């Protein structure tokens, strides 16, 4: 089976649904944008050994490869529309490809995203996805837009993915529903697309949490040239995380990566309207602190706490 057959057999499932796609299957996909739209583009690679364990199911691998890209679009406030896929395979394993294709199209259908192109090559397993989304002109959520006095929010709960990774790394078979939940949070993150899109009306600044809250918030602070105060007692920790990893839960929430939740800022005068607006979404958002002039301060019930000594935010000296 050659490259063309693989594409035909495993990756040619969707009928061109979006009117904006003028052609697929030529040398390039051609897309028409509406005059009031901007294009948001992102690329992420998942490489075996670096980003995932070799024994992870190809269904989950495909799902997550798409999810992390859609999460970047969500963090910009963009609505995902199209992806292209570059797949490097050591050999042709039909069961692996069939499961991969099922995982890929499961998440694409879920978020109404279309596969419009790609490439396959032989080599060490790696998956590169480029995702494109649309954004209304003049809108968007940027790392440099935080301002002193803004409230800092995060979506969902933090630290779950790191806990799931620990369970996987220790090869502990899941013993209960809490562990199942943590594993799923690691393997199948939820891109917060509806939230990102709604944030366009209430915020100008967001990032998705891929490297851990402190590291990713650090990117906002660096780009916006400001500081932050975080109230540790307000960190959203899930019941499964606290139950399974009690003493590590807070550290996982601060420094564990791959939660793919959004961290964003809200002007205090927009807080009430924002909290009202998110009741229409099935997601919890927690105010965990505020933007300050400089430095990163962690507080527990008003008392200052030392920063955990870990990479990613070491440019903040207290
Ligand atoms: Mg990101």
Topology of this protein?
Elements: H1 3-10, E1 21-23, E2 30-31, E3 37-47, H2 58-75, E4 79-89, H3 94-110, E5 114-122, E6 126-136, E7 151-155, H4 160-169, H5 177-187, H6 193-199, E8 206-208, H7 213-224, E9 227-231, H8 239-244, H9 249-255, E10 262-266, H10 271-277, E11 285-292, E12 296-300, E13 303-305
Parallel strand pairs: 4-5, 9-12
Antiparallel strand pairs: 1-2, 3-6, 4-6, 7-10, 7-11, 8-10, 9-11, 12-13
Helix pairs in contact: 2-3, 2-6, 4-5
The structure holds magnesium ion.
Magnesium ion (MG) binds next to helix 2.
What's the short version?
It contains ten helices and 13 strands.
Describe this structure in words.
The protein is α+β, with helices and mostly antiparallel strands and 318 residues long. It folds into two domains: 134 residues, PurM-like, N-terminal domain (60s Ribosomal Protein L30, Chain: A); 160 residues, Alpha-Beta Complex (Phosphoribosyl-aminoimidazole Synthetase, Chain A, domain 2). It is 32% helix and 25% strand. It has a seven-stranded mixed β-sheet, with helices on both faces. The protein has a four-stranded mixed β-sheet with strand order 3-6-4-5. It has a two-stranded antiparallel ribbon with strand order 1-2. β4, α3 and β5 form a beta-alpha-beta unit. It starts with a helix and ends in a 13-residue tail after the last strand. The protein binds magnesium ion (MG). Magnesium ion (MG) binds next to α2. Catalyzes the ATP-dependent phosphorylation of thiamine-monophosphate (TMP) to form thiamine-pyrophosphate (TPP), the active form of vitamin B1.
């Amino acid at each position: 089976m050659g490259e063309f057959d693989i594409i035909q057999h495993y990756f040619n499932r969707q009928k061109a649904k979006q009117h904006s796609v003028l052609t697929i299957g030529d040398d390039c996909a051609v897309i028409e944008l509406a005059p009031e739209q901007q294009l948001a583009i992102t690329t992420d690679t998942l490489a075996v050994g670096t980003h995932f364990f070799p024994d992870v199911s190809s269904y989950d691998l495909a799902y997550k490869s798409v999810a992390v890209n859609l999460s970047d679009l969500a963090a910009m406030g963009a609505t995902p529309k199209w992806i292209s896929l570059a797949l490097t395979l050591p050999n042709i394993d039909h069961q692996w490809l069939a499961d991969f294709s099922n995982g890929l199209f499961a998440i694409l259908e879920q978020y109404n995203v279309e596969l419009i192109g790609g490439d396959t090559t032989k080599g060490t397993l790696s998956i590169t996805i480029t995702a494109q989304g649309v954004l209304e002109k003049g809108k968007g959520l940027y790392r440099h837009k935080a301002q002193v006095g803004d409230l800092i929010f995060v979506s969902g709960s933090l630290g779950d993915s790191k806990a799931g990774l620990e369970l996987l790394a220790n090869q502990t078979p899941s013993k209960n529903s809490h562990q199942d939940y943590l594993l799923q949070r690691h393997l199948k993150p939820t891109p917060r697309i509806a939230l990102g899109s709604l944030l366009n009306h209430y915020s100008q600044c967001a990032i998705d949490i891929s490297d851990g809250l402190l590291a990713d918030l650090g990117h906002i602070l660096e780009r916006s040239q400001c500081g932050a105060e975080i109230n540790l007692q307000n960190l959203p920790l899930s019941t499964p995380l606290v139950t399974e990893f009690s003493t590590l839960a807070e550290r996982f929430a601060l420094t564990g990566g791959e939660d793919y939740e959004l961290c964003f800022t809200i002007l205090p005068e927009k807080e009430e309207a924002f909290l009202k607006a998110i009741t229409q979404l099935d997601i919890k958002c927690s105010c965990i602190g505020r933007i300050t002039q400089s430095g990163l301060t962690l507080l527990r019930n008003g008392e200052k706490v030392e920063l955990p000594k870990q990479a990613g935010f070491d440019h903040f000296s207290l």
